[in-house]
Design brief:
single chain; 439 residues; alpha/beta; OB fold (Dihydrolipoamide Acetyltransferase, E2P); six-stranded parallel sheet; binds S-adenosyl-L-homocysteine; binds FE3-S4 cluster; Methylthiotransferase_N_sf; iron; Methylthiotransferase_N
Length: 439
Amino acid sequence: MKYIYIKTWGCQMNEYDSSMIARYLEKTGQYLITQKTEQADILVLNTCSIREKAQEKLFHQLGRWKTLKSKNPTIIIAVGGCVATQEGKEIIKRAKHVDIIFGTQSLHKLPKMISEVEKNKKFMIDISFPQLDKFNYSLPIKTKGYTALVSIMEGCNKYCSFCVVPYTRGKEISRPSDDILFEVASLAEKGIREINLLGQNVNAYQGVTFNGKTCFFSELLRLISEIDGIDRIRFTTSNPLEFTDDIIEVYKDTPKLVSFLHLPVQSGSNKILQLMKRSYTIEKYEKIIEKLLKARPNIQISSDFIVGFPGESKEDFKQTINFIKKINFDMSYSFIYSSRPGTPASEMKDEINLKEKKERLYILQDCINKQTMSWSRRMLGSTQSVLVEGISKNNSMQIYGKTENNRIVNFYGPLEIIGQFAQVQINEVHTHNLQGILL
Ligand code: SAH
Ligand code: F3S
């Protein structure tokens, strides 16, 4: 048996890919996963290039692993993920001790690549985009707890001017609907109660059905909601561009679909949205939210924001803040714009200094944090459906679970209800969690 250590950077899709890598390797019967680098025969790095200095971070990490390899030259180092796809062979120019480079679409080929390197002691690379392959080879992932990620589509055709994803993940490709339904049903049998459907643009989903027809996202949601045992459905990430009325309709009649939606708007200024090539306006986004509120009056919305995009004036930023207040977003992931090599926005003139960008980020996050807190306060006295996950991290006498809107609730209750849904009344609101009473 050989030991494999996998390090993962980045989004949920990368986390998902890493668990898939682990499954492919374990399935050969020759490898075991270890959490200790010192024990590893094979080191795998699954990289991310969405923001920050991805290349520097990569070579820094490879430098550390070089020390391990100099002590034990038989160690095999494999680099995968978005930076590997973008940089390819360039990586070994600076890090000759790397043995394998594999792309986001070649995960299933890794066991074979490793055994070739073991045999021939020769560098291997595969960063090709044979997109259908990946879903053809997918295996059910190992799950922890009572929630599971299920990949339904991958890639993106939108080419927002700031984003590397279309270049690192390739075109949108949907997994056949029956494969998804089969996986969800088998997860339900294993005790999973909540499903999080994963993809770069889940609402662009168009999977083929068993009889050659096309299943759209709204239909997929309805089909999954009919699976016994699954009582909560989420998805990440959706895009305002294809958030069509048929998806909004699902909120009317599918209570298993959570009253919480992450719908990234990125900016509150139409000028900036146009420069970002987001292909929608603030008015269009507002219209979607209006319809959603009609379908599901208690729905809460979260978003991603980019501050300091090239050309963002003080006035544009003010419009973003006003928009945040108007929509009353519950939460956000917000970032300072980071120029990504090869994207159209990297050619735009970036005249805002870092201090100003940091200030804007601070103001934005402060505004959202206040809203998050006021949304939490509104929950005081209400009864929430909580998926009970385990013994509380703060108080071992209590158990905890998550609400539909992603709040952690601690409360006294029997251990037997771990893994089930419980009705809990909220009686205290703290910054990072809530306290409740089991009903
Ligand atoms: N498909 C999603 C976005 C996925 S990328 C959508 O349509 O919104 C995840 C988030 O990373 C984006 O929403 C954006 O806020 C952020 N991001 C992407 N590229 C970035 C960049 N170059 N600089 C800063 N943030 C970026
Ligand atoms: Fe990126 Fe825009 Fe697609 S943010 S993932 S190119 S929708």
